[in-house]
Amino acid sequence: MMMMMMIMMMMMMMMMMVVVVVVVVVAMIMMIMMMMITVIAAKILSFNLVIEIVPIIYSRLTKTKVTLVHVVVAVVVVVEVVLVVVAAAVVVVVVVLVVVVVVVEAVVVVVVVVVVVVVVVVVVVEVE
User: Fold this and answer.
1) Is residue 16 within 8 Å of 112, Cβ to Cβ?
2) What would the pLDDT profile of 10-66 be if each residue is shown by its tens digit?
3) By C-alpha distance, which of 28, 18, 2 is closest to 108?
4) What does the alpha-carbon distance between residue 81 and residue 79 come to, in Å, rounded to a whole number?
5) How far is CA 71 from CA 1, 65, 68, 103, in A?
6) How far apart are CA 28 and CA 106, in angstroms?
7) What does pTM read for this prediction?
8) How far apart are CA 1 and CA 122, in angstroms?
9) Which sign does the torsion angle of CA 95, 98, 104, 105 carry?
């Protein structure tokens, strides 16, 4: 009977550990993906800023009017800034979720360990 209890507890512990590992790995993959998206967005953004600034400076220097192209590029740049901000927000949310999940899992593991220890102590005391 006691052995069965112990085995059950051990199995539960193993399951918890597996769950923790899987969650952390998935979270890490998501974080890496988000980071990549953010970096790519930033690259596009910086590239577009260069494309946008040069014609505007040129138009200022040559006293020409701002063309439709400038408006379109400006709109695109604004959209990309928004995208980068959104990507950053998503990264933050993912990080927070990972932290919360890890903390919760840690608490669960600690509780399980405590329960196992208590059960073992009780069993040993009863046997004696």
Assistant:
1) yes
2) 777 778 778 777 877 787 777 777 777 777 777 777 777 777 666 666 666 666 566
3) 18
4) 5
5) 78, 11, 5, 48
6) 17
7) 0.40
8) 13
9) negative
What's the token pair of residue 59? 């138009």
Please tell me whether residue 1 adopts helix, strand or coil conformation: coil
Tokens matching residue 64: 């020409």
Residue for token pair 């919360």: 100
Q: What's phi and psi for 66, nearest 5 deg?
A: -70, 130
Task: Tell me phi and psi for residue 71, to 5 degrees.
Answer: -60, -50
Only one residue has tokens 């930033």, namely 42
Reading the block at residue 111, the tokens are: 């509780």
Token digits of residue 117: 């220890």
Contacts of 90 (CB under 8 A, 6+ apart): 34
Length of the chain, in residues? 128
